[in-house]
């Protein structure tokens, strides 16, 4: 649909955009559209695996097209800028849940049936622009 194509175009131009940013960009491309319609589009694109949703604490959810690799995010505490950071320790999955006390193995057995399907790592700091004051 036109809103989906427009939302993908906005995210190609503005990685890490929130829903309001995407809505403004979609409106600029195709005209009137509600924020709720944009949330619905972003939800559908996320479920289809075409966009990734990241949720920095205290910030609105952000969306990006980079879904085909394992990477992290760096968020500026001052202005909220979000940047991609390649995986800190290697190929996916770069993080593994800690082994519970007394467990002899890691993985699903040690997690008592809990299956991890996603890990989100967010580094917090201050960007150069905010640090410069």
UniProtKB/TrEMBL annotation:
Zn(2+) binds at residues 76, 79, 127, 130. Binds 1 zinc ion per subunit. The keyword Glycoprotein does not apply. It comes from the Bacteria. Its cofactor is Zn(2+). Belongs to the Fur family. This is Transcriptional repressor. It comes from Pseudokineococcus marinus.
